[in-house]
Amino acid sequence: MAQLQSMSSANVLSVPIHPSVNQGRLSRANICCSSKSVVYQVGAVSSSLHGNRIVHQRRIYNSVTGNQAIKMVASQNEKVESTSGGGLRGKLNKVVLAYSGGLDTSVIVPWLRENYGCDVVCFTADVGQGIQELDGLEAKAKASGASQLVVRDLQEEFVREYIFPCLRAGAIYERKYLLGTSMARPVIAKAMVDVAREVGADAVSHGCTGKGNDQVRFELTFFALNPKLNVVAPWREWDIRGREDAIEYAKKHNIPVPVTKKSIYSRDRNLWHLSHEGDILEDPANEPRKDMYMMSVDPEDAPDKPEYIEIGIESGLPVSVNGEHFSPATMLAKLNEIGGKHGVGRIDMVENRLVGMKSRGVYETPGGTIMFAAVRELESLTLDRETMQIKDSLALKYAELVYAGRWFDPLRESMDAFMEKITEGTTGSVVLKLYKGSVTVVSRKSPNSLYRQDISSFESGGNYDQADAAGFIRLYGLPTRVRAMQEKGF
Fold first, then answer.
1. Cα 132 to chain center, whole Å?
2. DSSP string, 19-41
3. Which of 56, 254, 277, 478 is in the most buried spot, having the most CB atoms within 10 Å?
4. Measured between alpha carbons, how far is residue 279 from residues 292, 314, 346 in Å?
């Protein structure tokens, strides 16, 4: 699945934009295409939701600030076959495609051109999946027929604006899942919408299958940020049913097939986690193979000596490791390295997908597991009982919204404001012991701690009179006593 990216402003690069034509949402009507004895009705019609869009030939200027790095590659030296006549399924002007350079997205490029007669802008986001997944993308995109490639570094935005709010909220889906893929999709989809606006595209496309959650996450973000964009999901439209079909289509259209060793697992990696699905994992009774893991060592092979680390926290968010401050993305990368070395953060679970089926997945989240343990522990000092209970109950709904792709839903945004307010005083530090896959809290302290040793100690009376407990218990237990009296006829 392609990883995508966003940009707010950027280095100057000239990109030619072709004039647009009137566009509308696609529907299966009006145009008939026949192939041998089979007749298909396909086409495009105008919609009242989509006004006429005319883009005059001009140049787009992009700039970048801060840590955001952008690389735009325009295939100005290669002529792309004219697409002005429309395609088999209708006509779109320009489509921004979530692009990874793998087999599926390499095939989607010519498929979009053939079926919708459009220019294709390939878009890739760096959300920490690793430099090896970004190598050679320019050449692959051009070879597939794309008119342009956009690559953006979203790592800091991903951690600061998406991971940290979930961390502060304590959002965990179905008791285990730390939402690694769920948090990454909206930042990628948001970037796609930004790029679509900048290049004058009237549609976006992704390579998600019709069985998974990601199609929902991408498209709900598109709807929330620009409901006028057309959305093309090839896996819900084309006749390609597997890898061999895709290879055959690529050969037919003279598209170089990516020469990579086919992984037996379906994986998604970003700075927060690495997920594994498929192959033997599809049977919940099978134990994962030892060589499957990539971010963490087997706990049995982890160092025999534990490592102690101190996590500094301000207003509910981690800011330092062992007294040294880092940017959000840099800190997470560092904790991934430390936690992975000790086999921390492995989760094996069967989850309920949004589309209704159950799915078994294995997740590696070493740095995230450390962050969650530290933040939650500090809250034990700074939050009172009622606040903690309300926060925990809302965290379940918060996680459900994120898992379901409703990142830009007003409900999640309102809950976020609540979480930010109640964690204002969650400042301090937590010391953790990492040892052979385990994370153990050994120390916590905060200037805003509600813990009072002079009250809690068994050794001194302090400000607490134990005799007061008798009256409290009689009042607190009054409903219990009244019910018992009624049942026993007293």
1. 19
2. PP-----EEEEEEEEEETTEEEE
3. 277
4. 11, 42, 18
317 has pLDDT over 90: yes
Residue 189 exposure: Cα atoms within 13 Å on the Cβ side: 31
- Dist. CA 490–CA 486, nearest whole Å: 6
Closest CA to 118 of 90, 145, 94, 85: 94
Decide if 310 contacts 356 (C-beta within 8 A).
no
C-alpha 351 chain-centroid distance: 16
**What pLDDT does residue 462 have?**
67
Which element (helix H / strand E) includes 94? strand 94-98
Q: Which residue has the tokens 């049977």?
A: 283
- Which has the minimum average pLDDT: 33-47, 117-131, 139-153, 355-369? 33-47
**CA–CA distance, 49 with 309 (Å, rounded to integer):** 55
C-alpha to C-alpha distances, 338 to 166, 307, 335, 372, nearest whole angstrom? 22, 9, 5, 15
d(CA 321, CA 304): 22
What's the chain's average pLDDT?
84
Determine the residue type at 167: L
Q: Quick one: pLDDT at residue 366?
A: 98
Rg of the chain (C-alpha set): 27
Residue positions annotated with a catalytic role:
104, 185, 214, 266
Six token digits for residue 488:
């026993």
Strand spans (E) along 286-423: 307-314, 317-321, 324-325, 346-352, 358-364
- At residue 257, the pLDDT reads 76
- Reference 412, options 316, 189, 420, 226; nearest CA is 420
Q: Return phi, psi of residue 487, to 5°.
A: -70, -35
Please compute, for residue 37, the number of CA atoms within 13 A of its CA located in the half-sphere on the CB side: 0
Q: Is the pTM of this model over 0.85?
A: no
Is 59's pLDDT higher than 70? no
Of the candidates 234, 125, 233, the one whose C-alpha atom is nearest the C-alpha of residue 184 is 125
Beta strands in 127-202 (DSSP E): 148-153
Q: Which residue has the tokens 């945004």?
A: 413
**Residue 214, H or E segment:** helix 214-225
What is the chain's length?
490
Judged against a pLDDT cut of 50, whether residue 305 lies above it is answered with yes
Residue-wise pLDDT tens digits, 117-150? 999 999 999 999 987 767 788 888 999 999 999 9
- Between CA 373 and CA 416 the distance in angstroms is 20
Q: Where are the beta strands (DSSP E) in 160-229?
A: 203-205
| Alpha-carbon span 110 to 415, nearest angstrom | 43
Q: Per the structure block, which two tokens stand in for 301?
A: 């092979």
The answer to whether residue 44 scores a pLDDT higher than 90 is no
Segment of 45-59, 411-425, 464-478 carrying the highest mean pLDDT? 411-425
